[in-house]
Amino acid sequence: MGNILGKEESLDFLNTYRNLLRIAGDMALPDDKAKVKKHIGDAVAKNGYGKDVYGFNFLLRTMHTALVVADEIGLKRSSILAVLLSPLVMNGSCDIAGIEKDFGADTANIIRGLTKTYELYEKNAAIDNENFRTLLFSFAEDVRVILIIIAERLYLMRMAKFIENEDYRLQIAAEASYLYAPLSHKLGLYKIKSELEDLSLKFRDRETYDFIKSKLNETKRSRDKYIAEFIAPVEAKLKEMGLNFDIKGRTKSIHSIHNKLLKQKIEFERIYDLFAIRVILDTPLEKEKAECWQVYSVVTDMYQPNPKRMKDWLSVPKSNGYESLHTTVMGPEGRWVEVQIRTKRMDEIAEKGLAAHWKYKGLKGENGLDDWLSNVREVLEHKDSSPTDLINDFKMDLYDDEIFVFTPKGDLFKLPKDATVLDFAFAIHTKIGSKCISAKINGKNVSIRHKLQSGDQVDILTSPNQTPKQDWLNIAVTSKARVKIKQSLKEQSSKQVEFAKELIHRRFKNRKIDEDESKLMRLIKKMGYKTVTDFYTAIAQENLDVNTVIDNYLEQEKKEQELADHTDRSVENYYSSIPAEEFSTKEDVLVIDKNLTGIEYSLAKCCNPIYGDDIFGFVSSQGIKIHRTNCPNAPSMFKRYGYRIVKSRWAGKSGANYPVTLKVVGHDDIGIVTNITSIISKENGMTLRAINVDSKDGLFQGSITVMLSDTSVMDGLIKKLKAVKGVKQVSRY
């Protein structure tokens, strides 16, 4: 391997290879090892391995991904072999028929799915809305394909600090946040989901990441002391009962703490639930539920529980197989503490998701997830839905908490939180959804808009005259219901358009008028209709009279003819009054996407970026908006609209002044405002635009808006303000 790997890389390869053999050894067939070595050796001899787009050695990347697949996800022989051999099929070192002969059809099929997804990244390094469908098809055909892709993403995120191209680093961090972390969550890979989110935050907003990490380090000693005090009496009681268990405190992820800070808009010191206590029982399958409830009884006897924050995933597990009992109790010092109770089997499923679930329940997986995957396939089969709608509808299903509801016969259905009667009707059957008019819940009549609660018994009421309506899209939240409604509306619209077209053609003929398609199109545009379909729909729904349309058509035809006659007579006196185009020689301050300049953009008001900030562009209906990468809205934009993100960077020199608002906190001193304004007035090229001061309980708090040129000037100002006597804190809003 020396010819394709350096000294350190060779050592890394050998260690990874040994670990892989140790973990996967008992899964392999007797001659698998020799065959894989031969295939890889042949590829090396043909120079089949090179560097990938990120600058990593492809052989090493493949080996590390295989280790994640085997060790951290727990997939078996076919998946591990597919990871190791798929690059060889793609670079032409061997063909899929040879792989199928040597390693079986299952391995070959996974490679076919992987090849499809890898081809997407070759065409476009980012997953955008056009190829999102293809990615999901591979996923829906064999869920192991997406598990392998997640494993590779995890490896890339762990190695992202070595990627020299900053755009690539930001790109994979964004994808990890808005696509692969939610997918990991849906598939039950909670540990991987948390790591992807934390690493994504680290590369997209290093300042926030480092701040939370340092705060966690500062508070570690007091947190450990509190956890020990909380655990001690519980541990003693469980031992007295003769239970086999492990109990520990687990600090919440940096990403989840960041979300809490944003959501609750509070200081770090005011977050109490920085950790959760986890009790893991070692018990036989038949005793699992009984012993989990015993532990629950012990904990809630010692500490007052919050009844609103009790979650029972023992009785009804999540669709991805997650089983656990969660409760929040009032611990010492009046602090709320989350306690998670589960068994070793449940914990393995929570860590390794689907793969561990298969280990216990068989290869098919849990029915809830099978249903969800069937729904994904069904949604994908309707090619009418636009890729943008597909992304938005699909992602709605990824992170949502689940509720469970029953039919009158007692059949159980799992739906996302906030699902309505309409969603439930479509979950039962498309025909029932399309004819749904209301429902009875626990004997009480409710509308199709009614939001369901866990435990509801729902009896759907239908009418043969009912059809899906446009406003149903504001009621339904599940992707299945929304896709079916859109499909039905499109079919209705198509019938209406055909009816209206036939009607207008007949009226033109009756009035003996020659119909000119181009003239009709100009009239439709002039009448303010955005699409031809909207125009014909208005006629079909009798919101627009056909005779009025024909009268307008004749009037327009008359005016166009008069204008044409006038133009013919005066053409020799006609000259252009349009001024020559002016070209600007001023250098662009921003470069957007692939070194494009001269594109219109505006700076987002939610985060007020200034020259020097780490930024990204967001394609909105008002053009491209430039945001800071640590903008409070960035996580939501990357998660929901990642395909509309464009790379942006500052170029040249700062050519303008930008507004920056600073928050200043200090002791209430009559001279503090004077000192602050004095500093700003002495700074060259800086203007004070606004100052707002509030004083309470001996503390001064103010917001100051200044106009300045770039981040270096801002950092210098912050440093000077922090040096003012009495100032305790200066931060940017």
Tag the structure with descriptive keywords:
single chain; alpha+beta; 733 residues; 5-stranded mixed sheet; 20 strands
Beta-sheet strand percentage? 15-25%
Number of strands: 20
Mean pLDDT: 80
Over all CA atoms, what is the radius of gyration?
Answer: 32 Å
- Percent helix, as a range, is 40-55%
Largest sheet: 6 strands, mixed
State the secondary-structure class.
alpha+beta
User: Count of helices?
Assistant: 27
Shape: globular
| End-to-end gap | 53 Å
Uncertain spans: 362-367, 567-587
What's the quick description here?
This protein is α+β, with helices and mostly antiparallel strands and 733 residues long. Helices cover 51% and strands 16% of the residues. The strands form five sheets. Strands 1, 2, 3, 4, 5 and 6 form a six-stranded mixed sheet that branches. Strands 12-16-14-15-13 form a five-stranded mixed sheet. Strands 18-19-17-20 form a four-stranded antiparallel sheet, with helices on one face.
Question: What would you say this structure looks like, in words?
Answer:
The chain is an alpha+beta fold and 733 residues long. The protein is built from 27 helices and 20 strands. Strands 1, 2, 3, 4, 5 and 6 form a 6-stranded mixed beta sheet that branches. Strands 12-16-14-15-13 form a 5-stranded mixed beta sheet. A 4-stranded antiparallel beta sheet has the order 18-19-17-20, covered by helices on one side. A hairpin with a 5-residue loop joins strand 5 and strand 6. Helix 3 crosses helix 8, helix 8 crosses helix 10 and helix 18 packs antiparallel against helix 21. The longest helix is centred in the last third of the chain and has 32 residues. It is globular.
